[in-house]
Amino acid sequence: MSAQRWMLGGLGLAVLASGLALAQQGPVDLLPPGFDKPAARPRARPAPPPAARPAPPAAAPSIAARPVIAAPATTPAPAGPAIDPTALAARLPNLQNLDKLPPDQLDALLGLKPKYDMPAGARRAMQRVGVLGAGEGGLPPFSLARQNGALVRAALDGNRGVMVSRWGHILLRRVLASRLDAPQGLNPADFAAARAALLVRMGEGEAARALVQDVDAGNYNPALTQAAYDAYVMTADFTGICPVVAAVGNARKDREWQVLQAVCAVFSGNGAVGFAQLDRLTNGGALPRIDMLLAQKYAGAAGVAGKGGGRRAVTIEWSGVNDMTPWRYGMTLATGLTPPAELMRQAGPRYDLIAATAPMLGLGARAEAADRAAAWGVLSASSMVDLYSQIAADAEVKGAPADRAVLLRDAYLADSPAARLAAIRQLWGGVNDPLLRYGRQVTTAYAAARLPAEGAFSSDAGDLIAAMLAAGLDANALRWGSVVERGSAGWALLALAAPGARPPVADGDIASFKRGDSSDGSRRTGFLVAGLAGLGRVAEPVRRDYAAKLGLDLDTQSRWTRAIDQAAANGNPTLVALLAGLGMQGEGWQAMTPRYLYHIVGALHRVGLDGEARMIAAEAVARG
């Protein structure tokens, strides 16, 4: 696997439900055909016909129920041809080599391994693959079924996973995790694979793993196998993928796959064969030595008893290792080791998204990565509070993470509002990177919401409102409406974030905001006008006037703007969200234009995703 497969593009701990109980569909007759209607026997007199009885009503199907493939009500298929002993003996290796074969290869050689060994009644159909039902916040399952598969595939494959907006990331994750039918012309396995692959690029390894687990291993194709591989590697779950490894078998022959086959053999109880394979791959240089040693250490943790299958003590030496790869990082975490700090500094920030959600890492290491994960949208505000609550209760965590835990506790529990605000300010001021500072605002969202809306705090109102809106606390933020001055940063955020129908924003208020706008080229003013226009909160003459003054060019069309506007006109929220994600790509808000923001906010607003539209518009002004 390429070292950067899930890192191309240059991307809280809330666990998505991975399955729902099937609704009972009514009584099922378990008798095969013919048993309920035996052949008539000769009688002296024909029996009178039985009185007709109405059939019992079937239970209403659940909207969240996954379809299953019903067991065929037919007589068993005739047995296959008998094994020819002469032909079998000709293709068997000698006993010494036979003993070294893993169970799956031996079964295949003997013809004992069925192609798909799951009972027919337990198999899941490939409709509505996903983990969020429509009643759990997921998007409508049928919303893409009649769409052009090529367009949907382009929106998925063309997204590098790095988005300027935290709320855009959250919305796209919700769409990708929804139970959805595949669009026209797109194979359901390929559709699931494209969604999982994008989740991996977004740093959402857990969501990607849950998605691929919703597909039976027997339905995997090469694309879905690769997406599953990337998801399991990203979550350091090298045994979780073993059912897929068993189902795919030798159809995939790359070196990483061969190592996984050996590891799975060890964990399945065949330690002698698994370790023999690992030794052979190590001596043959299948992967760099550090990767093979990590695989051996991981397999050795199984402690399988038997010939050659006991625990192995493997020493990991990092000297001579100059880079980090997803496989290497996942194996390091899975074996309970900490990657060298120097390698991680060179590896780039994407690994923070894995570290922040890796339960095998220490709390301190997770905290160091959590600010970036919160700013991206991988971690929620409540997840950040949970993390620091654990740190505060763990006396073994020292240094900066422990200091931040104390400050966050003061932000909630200090004796006076002024002291709580002082703690919040210290947390915000602890970093210079705007992205990480926004992560701290996410962390303090609920603490900011607990502060009283008083004039004494008006100078911090803009940042406090931005922190609350980072977690979607619009009702709490609106309490500051009587405190902020018209035309101020706080006023602009509330003008965008307030729910419901609003009167048009006055020209003079926008002008006041523009006078205080110190961003390059009045960029934040451009975002304000674009957001207000998308939400329908500014009069058309005012919109045209400011578009001309700021050179916004909101109405110029492109292939992307036509696509998202058409999806909105058709009332399709799922397709709009996918296209919005495609248009929000970039490392920072400098990559976003007011024109694209206008079309994104307007389209989301028109298809009923008004909350996301308002939060994205406010985030643009807060971070622009």
| Largest sheet properties | none
* Unreliable stretches covering 5 or more consecutive residues: 1-81, 111-115, 304-308
- Supply the helix-strand structural class: mainly alpha
Q: Level of helix content?
A: 40-55%
β-strand percent reads under 5%
Word description of this protein:
The chain is mainly alpha-helical and 624 residues long. Among the domains are: 126-318; 485-624, no CATH class. It has helices spanning 85-91, 95-98, 103-110, 149-157, 166-177, 188-201, 205-212, 222-234, 242-248, 255-267, 271-283, 289-300, 326-334, 341-347, 350-355, 363-376, 381-393, 400-413, 417-428, 434-443, 445-449, 461-470, 474-477, 489-497, 507-515, 523-534, 540-550, 559-569, 573-583, 594-606, 610-623. The radius of gyration is 29 Å and the shape is globular.
Give the helix/strand layout.
Layout: H1 85-91, H2 95-98, H3 103-110, H4 149-157, H5 166-177, H6 188-201, H7 205-212, H8 222-234, H9 242-248, H10 255-267, H11 271-283, H12 289-300, H13 326-334, H14 341-347, H15 350-355, H16 363-376, H17 381-393, H18 400-413, H19 417-428, H20 434-443, H21 445-449, H22 461-470, H23 474-477, H24 489-497, H25 507-515, H26 523-534, H27 540-550, H28 559-569, H29 573-583, H30 594-606, H31 610-623
Describe the structure concisely for a colleague:
By secondary structure, the protein is mainly α. Among the domains are: 126-318; 485-624, no CATH class.
